[in-house]
Structures are given as structure tokens and as C-alpha cells.
# Entry
Amino acid sequence: MNISNLIIYFITGGLFTTIIVALEESGYRTLSGLATLIPVFTLVAYFFIGQTQGSMAVSQHAKWVLVGTLVSWVPYMLVVAYLSPKIGSHNAILLGLAVFFVLALIYIAIIKTI
# Structure
């Protein structure tokens, strides 16, 4: 891993995030929503992992992340979706992240024992 690759990874991920926020702020809610549905982190990560580690590494990582997503990301999104109107978006996101990390750490602990 070298510094130039890290800079490229950082710029690529930041570019996607900037586009999503800019679309939302410009009133293009549908495009922003569509862009948000694109798995940006895995898209960028898998492109570069495939480039440096090969297709098998991408496949193994994708299988691991697929289950992890169901275990931790789906509950996170449910917390944010249902609690934002009740406790505010920032509080719902913080609570959602707490749920995410607890479930993700449990998932990782279980996977390590298998």
C-alpha cells in the first residue's frame, strides 16, 4: 500500500459522497436517493481490492459483507427511519450507529469462532 493509492481511494470515496449531498441540496431528491442506493463504499473498495488482491478476495469479502449487512446495516437503517421523526435525525443516527456497532461486533465475534 502506498500513499498515492490512499489518496486516490480517499478522493474517489469523497467524490461520491459530495455528489449525493449536492444532488439532495439542489432539490434532485430522486437522483440523490438513487445515488444513495448505490453501494458506494463497496463499489469503490471492490474495484481497488480486485485490482490489488484479485477476484477471489472480492468474492470472499462480498460474501462476508452480505451477511454482515443483514445483521447490522438493516437494523441501523430501521432505527434511523423510524426514530428520526420522533427523536431527531442526529439522535436517531447516533442510536442507529450504536445498534450497528453492537451487532457488527457480535457478528465479527461469531465469525471468528467458526
